[in-house]
Amino acid sequence: MRIAILWNPRASRYTLRLRGSVREPVVTIPQGGTLAEARGFLTRHRGWLKARLDALPSATPIADGAVIPLRGTPVTIRHVGGRGLVRVETDENGSALLVSGSAEHLKRRVTDFLKREARADLEAATLRHAAALGVRVATIRLGDPASRWGSCSSSGTIAYSWRIIMAPPAVLDYLVAHEVAHMREMNHSPRFWRLVRTICPGMESSKAWLARNGASLHAVGAED
Q1: Segments in the chain below pLDDT 70
Q2: What pLDDT is stored for residue 35 in this prediction?
Q3: Which residues form the signal peptide (predicted)?
């Protein structure tokens, strides 16, 4: 098994985590740490790592014929070749994501489509919740972090995981409400949660959905 080593002078201790969709274990070495100590740390936590890896859902490929979620609804990827945009079509048999272009570029084209859809939905929800709270978001960024769905900086930058577009719209709305609320409360105090509930009354069910199903979203396009 490949294990990544991350030297972090700001870290205060050794940590072990799994890196998102590639499912790669990452050991963080703090300032003053050594590779020998990192090996020992990894050995002591081998059981934990095996349990985490075994608990991960099976990877869902981004490939012709695969079924992935889009806004909480399953869509079947269909490679149609030729020229044109990636698009969703729905009929009595369900929804399909039609992907033009060469087969070798299918995964990239699907991923780019999901990112575009995510940005559109996230920007709209961010503007709506920011207006409700009377705050201004300076920048919206998309990424694919391994361990969080969003973050908010004191400078007004909010970052989201593009994978949230695969969740039901109510879950995306909760994520945005959570991060925008940090513009007023940079903590997770009772006051912060009251603020989130004010703009997202159904937050409890969406929060639970993400905790329960988040790993399956990271499994889309993952490498087993």
Answers
A1: 1, 20-23, 223-224
A2: 92
A3: none
CA pseudo-torsion sign 106, 108, 109, 114: positive
Exposed / middle / buried, residue 174 (Cβ in 10 Å: 0-12, 13-18, 19+): buried
| CA 78 to chain CA mean position, Å | 24
Q: Are residues 74 and 178 in the same domain?
A: yes
CA distances from 183 to 82, 209, 213, 220 (A): 46, 24, 27, 31
Question: Which range of residues forms the domain containing residue 27?
Answer: 4-55
Residues 12-64 pLDDT 10s: 999 998 776 556 788 999 999 999 999 999 999 999 888 877 777 788 999 99
Q: Pull the structure tokens for residue 186.
A: 């940079």
Answer yes or no: is 121 within a domain.
Answer: yes
Are 87 and 46 members of one domain?
A: no
- Residue 40 has, within 13 A of its CA and on its CB side, a CA count of 5
